[in-house]
Amino acid sequence: MSHAHKQLHPGPDTPYGQAANRSINVGGTAFAYRDLGPRSGVPLILLNHWGAVLDNFDPRIIDGLASRRRVIATDYRGIGASGGTAPVTIGAMAQDAIALIHALGFEKVDLLGFSLGGFVAQDMALRAPELVRKLILTGTGPAGGKGIDRVGATSWPLMIKGLLTLRDPKFYLFFTATANGRQAAKDFLKRLKERKENRDKAPTPATFLRQLRAIEAWGRQAPQDLGSLRIPVLIANGDNDIMVPTVNSTDMARRIPDAQLIIYQDAGHGGIFQHHADFVPKALSFLDA
């Protein structure tokens, strides 16, 4: 089977690095996604961080999850290969994702949201409770959560440091400054470069700023009724998240009736990337339980 043919017709064993870029029209806007793993069971929809495109999903996590689950990685409106203009509210992103799921023909899904994606996933579960079976929230926090309205102020100096040191800002933002953290950061950033062909488009500065407006508005929003979430929820983070402070993870775990909490030691915002070998089996057993 030629490589090109495999691109067009990925089997259940196609790795994320070779998964085809797909697109679906949702209400007149093209949404980009990748679809892999077995065709049976409840699909797992992935929602990613601020400024992320399809190539910012950790291939170790996706391939690990897709060994047993159908996994669909998505691009928000206005970012990567998706059309339209990036929304400036989490609510609009959640409505987009719900519409995308309906367009794909799914009646029940599991959600995994990282950072900004975790805000969107919570909002989706509250807006469309009949749609969401289980929820995984990583490196994230609730509406009105501590420090979320300060994400920009926290991030800009480290983004500038990234430019000055010729490093991806995620090196500083997602990982701790310890030897462990630095090694995990290098490994993670290397994994993100594994895909060589048909990569997604990088985000524009305007999109980055529009998404930041949505994040900061979420941080100023009134708290939501997380006690009304009547589904199983798995929450994971590092013990030293400087972007969405770790206290938000413990707060969500306290407020959600059926929540499990994993806090990784000596890890930051990207704790699940640093500890992917531990996180993937835990996530799969949570989804299978």
TrEMBL record:
InterPro entries in the record: AB_hydrolase, AB_hydrolase_1, AB_hydrolase_fold
Keyword Hydrolase: yes
Domain AB hydrolase-1: 43-275
Entry's Gene Ontology molecular function annotations: hydrolase activity
Record's keyword terms, sorted: Hydrolase
UniProt cross-references to Pfam families, sorted A to Z: Abhydrolase_1
Ribosomal protein among keywords: no
Protein name: Hydrolase, alpha/beta fold family
